[in-house]
């Protein structure tokens, strides 16, 4: 695979169940995805891909989300106030860069069958 093809970005639309929260995100066609076993991710069943904040654009729903933080309070878990779905979260990467955690289950037309999620032990982190 050529390097240009390996780094090609795709723009996906995504959002919550009721449509109050909508966004676009630029990421690879087959981005790295984690399956975290922390107390919140395991209960939600999220599959997360992390992107730089500049690759994420909130199109609708700024006032439709509720912020929840726990433990180290490094991540803002943003739930739709209407349907309760957390389609993305925001935070800071270990290097200090702003990032967005995308729940790839909430991306429009994304083929989940192509994924091989990496397990992350968030329970022990």
Give the tags.
disordered N terminus, 41% strand, 2 helices, Metal Binding Protein, Guanine Nucleotide Exchange Factor, Chain A, 125 residues, CENP-V-like, 10 strands, 3-stranded antiparallel β-sheet, 5-stranded antiparallel β-sheet
Sum this structure up briefly.
This is GFA family protein. Keywords: Metal-binding, Zinc. This protein has about 120 residues and is mainly β.
Would you count the extended β strands for me?
Answer: 10
Average pLDDT for all residues: 89
Dominant shape: globular
CATH topology: Metal Binding Protein, Guanine Nucleotide Exchange Factor, Chain A
For the record, the CATH class is Mainly Beta
The largest sheet, given as strand count, sense and whether it forms a barrel, is:
5 strands, antiparallel
Structural domain count: 1
In whole angstroms, the N-to-C terminal distance is 35 Å
Number of helices: 2
Question: Share of helix among residues?
Answer: under 10%
Strand order of the largest sheet: 4-9-8-7-6
**Element order: H for helix, E for strand:** HEEEHEEEEEEE
CATH architecture: Beta Complex
Strand portion: 35-45%
Report the structural category: mainly beta
Task: Give Rg in angstroms.
Answer: 14 Å
**Unreliable parts:** 1-5
Give structural notes:
The chain has 125 residues and is mainly beta. It has one domain: Metal Binding Protein, Guanine Nucleotide Exchange Factor, Chain A (Beta Complex). Helix content is 8%, strand content 41%. It is built from two helices and ten strands, in the order αβββαβββββββ. It has helices at 3-6, 39-44, and strands at 9-15, 22-28, 34-36, 48-52, 56-60, 65-68, 75-80, 88-92, 98-103, 118-120. The strands form three sheets. It has a five-stranded antiparallel β-sheet, with no helix packed on it. The radius of gyration is 14 Å and the shape is globular. The termini are far apart. Mean pLDDT is 89; it is low at 1-5. Keywords: Metal-binding, Zinc. Belongs to the Gfa family. This is GFA family protein. InterPro entries: CENP-V-like, CENP-V/GFA, Mss4-like_sf. It comes from Ferrovibrio xuzhouensis.
